[in-house]
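Duplicate of #3305? Posting structure anyway:
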């Protein structure tokens, strides 16, 4: 709806999804700071096209996104553009979404929430069926590379109230999971809530 703003709390460890028409502003906030979110975006009119962190790394020639640059799809077309970022600017594009097997390998017995399951549940009502989750953009997540090629998953440096602002470049379904990871300390205060907001601009 034109002029509408939809603000939804993504509870700690859960996922939510919303439609974002072309030109909509998508805002992601970590009220407590240091909460990692897995961000996914699918074309609403063809969900086989989706934001791909791997293709975005090649497009931008960077490990982390920069303001003004797009997140491109598995077909190398811009779907979202980063237009604002109050955080330290560290948003991992290397690590896949956590899933049940990840937690099993970390020693969890029984069920544990995961970003892969959160994604499937969040988009199911919006007409998107996910076989294998795309590689997400892990907002506020710090994965650093040492000179020998080693990877280190570090606590998120995002501060309370830090927010990202993105512009939808196509009709999208945007999903955000407030990552439930509590065995590897990537969210310094344990899983906490995120906020997802979609603002649809007034018609000119
Ligand atoms: Zn996760």
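Output from current build:
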């Amino acid at each position: 709806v034109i002029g509408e703003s939809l603000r939804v709390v993504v509870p700690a460890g859960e996922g939510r999804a919303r439609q974002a028409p072309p030109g909509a502003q998508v805002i992601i906030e970590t009220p407590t700071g240091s909460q990692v979110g897995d961000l996914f975006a699918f074309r609403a009119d063809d969900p086989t096209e989706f934001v791909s962190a791997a293709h975005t790394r090649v497009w931008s020639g960077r490990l982390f996104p920069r303001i003004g640059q797009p997140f491109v799809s598995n077909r190398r077309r811009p779907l979202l553009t980063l237009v604002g970022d109050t955080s330290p600017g560290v948003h991992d594009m290397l690590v896949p979404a956590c899933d049940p097997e990840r937690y099993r390998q970390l020693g969890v017995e029984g069920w544990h929430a995961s970003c892969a399951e959160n994604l499937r549940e969040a988009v199911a009502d919006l007409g998107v069926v996910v076989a294998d989750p795309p590689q997400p953009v892990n907002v506020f997540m710090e994965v650093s590379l040492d000179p020998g090629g080693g990877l280190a998953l570090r606590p998120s440096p995002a501060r309370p109230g830090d927010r990202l602002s993105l512009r939808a470049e196509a009709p999208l379904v945007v999903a955000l999971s407030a990552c439930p990871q509590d065995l590897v300390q990537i969210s310094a205060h344990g899983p906490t809530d995120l906020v997802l907001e979609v603002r649809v601009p007034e018609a000119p």
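Confirmed duplicate; merging threads. Residues 38, 97-98, 115, 177, 179, 181 surround zinc ion (CB under 6 Å). The mean pLDDT is 95.
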